[in-house]
Amino acid sequence: MTAIARFGAIALDSRDPRGLAVFYRALLDFDLRYESDELVVLQGSKVTLTIEHVADHRPPDWPNNAVPKQMHLDLFVTDLDAAERAAIDCGATKPDFQPAPERWRVLIDPSGHPLCLTIAPGTDR
User: Which residues pair with 93 in a beta bridge?
Assistant: First the structure.
């Protein structure tokens, strides 16, 4: 079987992406690859961590479950349209709302978790 995508990044939501990035850079000694008010991209030796701005982010209240643990996968692809079709064929669904369909596509896995098919940061289409 040929892979549809390659693992891209672990994406964390935050009200303060830059502040959270400072924490993870210190904790993991990751390199800063990209930074804006909306997105910070950190790179480790084998993994990319993105921290994305979500204005109304509510942190999980672990170990309770009123606000469950949250994260999603960013999967890097070279062709968004082809990867989207293949992922849907595997069982993903596509919600109507797509915030930036020219750069990434939000899909929902069979258990309801969001994931993004995306062009790698710094890559032109």
Answer: 108
Output the pTM of the full model.
Answer: 0.72
Cα-atom radius of gyration of the chain, to the nearest Å? 15
Task: Classify 112 in phi/psi space as left (phi over 0), alpha (psi -120 to 50) or beta.
Answer: left
Q: Is 110 among the domain residues? A: yes
Residue with tokens 């969001």: 114
- Distance in angstroms (rounded) separating the CA atoms of residues 85 and 77: 12
Q: Is residue 29 part of a domain?
A: yes
Query: What range defines the domain where residue 73 resides?
Result: 6-57+67-118
DSSP secondary structure, 4-56, as one string: S-EEEEEEEEES-HHHHHHHHHHHH-PEEEEE-SSEEEEE-SS-EEEEEE-TT
pLDDT digits (tens, 9 = 90+) for 28-66: 999 999 999 999 999 999 899 999 999 999 888 877 888
What's the number of domains the chain is made of?
A: 1
Phi-psi sector, 29: left (phi>0), alpha (psi -120 to 50), beta = left
Question: Could you report the per-residue pLDDT of 73-119, keeping only the tens digit for each?
Answer: 888 899 999 999 999 998 999 999 999 999 999 999 887 778 899 98
